[in-house]
Each structure stands twice: as C-alpha cells, then as structure tokens.
Amino acid sequence: MRILETLLSRRWILKSQDRELYYQVKDEIGSVKKFLTEKLGYQVIVNPYLVKVEKLPAKPENWMGITEFTEKIEYVFFCLLLMFLEDKEAEEQFVLSELTEYVQSQYQEEQVDWTVYHYRRHLIKVMKYSVNCGILKVDDGSEESFARDDTSEILYENTGVSRYFMKNFTQDIMGYTKPSDFEREEWIDVDEDRGIVRRQRVYRQLLMTMGMYRSEENEEDFAYVRNFRNMIGGELSELFDCELQVYRTGAFLILGENCRLGRCFPEENTLSDIVLLCGGILWEQIETEKLKLPLDEQLCLPTEQFQRILEELKGQYGAGFAKKYREMTTREFCREMIDYMKSMELIQEEDGKVVIRQAVGKVIGRYPKDFLDRGGRDEQ
Prior knowledge:
By secondary structure, the protein is of the alpha+beta class. The protein has helices at 3-9, 19-28, 33-39, 72-85, 96-106, 117-132, 143-148, 179-186, 194-208, 219-227, 229-239, 270-287, 303-317, 323-326, 330-343, 369-373; strands at 13-14, 44-46, 50-53, 93-95, 136-140, 155-158, 212-213, 242-246, 250-255, 299-302, 347-350, 353-356. Strands 1-3-2 form a three-stranded antiparallel β-sheet. A three-stranded antiparallel β-sheet has the order 4-6-5. Helix 12 (270-287) packs across helix 13 (303-317). This is TIGR02678 family protein.
C-alpha cells in the first residue's frame, strides 16, 4: 500500500468504516510522518477513532470546499451541526427535531421556517453529507421523510469524529474577519523562519495544485524550485510514481500511471477528453500565429473569443462526443466547459476575460485522422 497517497487523497481514515486500513496506516504512518510535518507542515492526527492529515494548500484554490454544497446556508447549517455535536458523546443518539430547534435558535441571518421546503432541502444535503463522511449514523428513519414532512423524525447517532473535522487552530480566531486572517494563521508558528515557510509552500503547491506558475508574487518560491529541482524531484519520486518538470514559467509534478494522488487530470470522463482536444486547437492556433503567446505563456482572451474557440471545437469534434454533449446548445456547452476547466485550475475567469494556464498546453489530444475522415461516426 502507498500510505502517503492514501493519506493525501482522503479526508481521513475512520476505524469504524475501514478497520483493516485504519490499523495498516496507523502502523506505517511513522515512515512518512517526518515528510508530512517538515516538508508540508501538516499536522498528523492518530487516535482511537481515525487517522487524519490536516491538509491545506499554499493558498485558497477553486477545488476547496465541499462539492456537495452549493449554497452558503448549507455551510452555515453544517457548522451549526458541528457545534451541536460538541455536547454529544460518541455513540450518543439524538432525533432530528433537537437539531432543527438548535439551528433555529442559532441561525442569525434570517428566521428559519422548516415548513418551507428549501430550508429542509438545504439541511437534508448537510445531513446526507455528514452520514456519508462518517460524522453521523442513521439509526431509524430517512431524510426523504423529512423532505416530505417537516414533522418527521430521524434518529441519528453521533460517531464522535465531528470534533476532528475542522482544522485545529493554534490562535483565537474569534477576531478574524476575512480569509487572509486564516491564511496568516497557518504560518504563524514558523513565521520567523522564512526558509521553512517557503519550503512548505513549494511542496504544497507542487503536490496539491495543477501546476506552480511563476509570477511577481511567488518569485522567491519559484527560484527555490529551480535551484533545488534535483533534490525536490528526487525526494518526491522516491515517495510517488512521479516526475518533476520545471520550465521557464512553470513547474509541474507529472504523475505516473500507477500513482493515485487525489484528483488528477486527465480524468476518465468525456469532459477531460474534450479539454485535451481544446488544448490541441489552442496549440494549433499558436503555431499558425492566430493566437500570440505572451512572455508569461498564459493566454488571456476575451470571454467571447474563448467561447468561439469552444464553438469551433464542438463543430470540429462534436460527432465523437457522448450524446449528452452532442445535444447541448452552444451556450450550455461553453458554460459546462468553462466551469469544468475552472474547477481543474486550467483557466481563470476575470473581468470578462479567460486566462488559460500553461497546464492546458502540457497535455493535448487529437482524434485519429481516420476517425475524422469517417466523420466521427464511431460512438465513444
């Protein structure tokens, strides 16, 4: 088992859900703990309930957050649930009405009325997520009954792991008012040693982002990668099936086929295939000088121009797409592609423009010539 890949790819390993893996990781974690604490600056938690590495990126990224949640109120309900469970012992049971009363009394933004369906819908998403990740167990009832009737009861059991969901802060955070306060808190214990901070930022960015890009803000960090590329690459390749590639404006950790380190690109889905084709079209336009590559190697295009490229992509290759994407309108297709590429950190949207990161040009794809000659009639 590749213990480091397992630890970095999961939120935690719960004894209640995977007893064998829990004991295996617990026995072997000593072999990687030094790397986690010294090179990444991560706290390692091992207790009778779970094994967890407190993973944070060098800076906030698009992929952070709980993907099951789509509204701010769901995050608020989840935090209130964690507060509610603070007073519950492990294996202690409670009924849903206890929680709904607590949420009503604590929620400050507006008056929560559980007879209104959309409030129940938001809470149901929170409860289902909490069950799936191991914070709660359902002993009797179901969320669907609460969706139909606000008086329905569900019997839950607290597993005891909720108190380990949030990061342990070393400072009092009650005075924090903006995200940057939390970012500063992450480095406060090592702030006097800039070398340690820089090293941990670099390793985090290489391991947890699509690529590390050179900019005025990270010039020192990028210089560290260039100067110590052999040392960094050698250390990481001993731990993972990977290769560190460093260029003038970017550095990338290329994972081998046997490496399973969280979410990687390309994924095994149609959208990933389409992004590869998009990269191919962009590269062709750069070679034919339809697009001019700037010195920082990041294309910045008006949103309308990028949408026209996606429209051209669909027209040229759409016959080979899955039915869902073939039948989308151009507007739907563009929105789906932009949202996906943003989630994978391949592009950024800002002020009516799309910034295309260098990673898009790292892996490009094309259909075989004979497939195109047949008009793309083969189903994929």
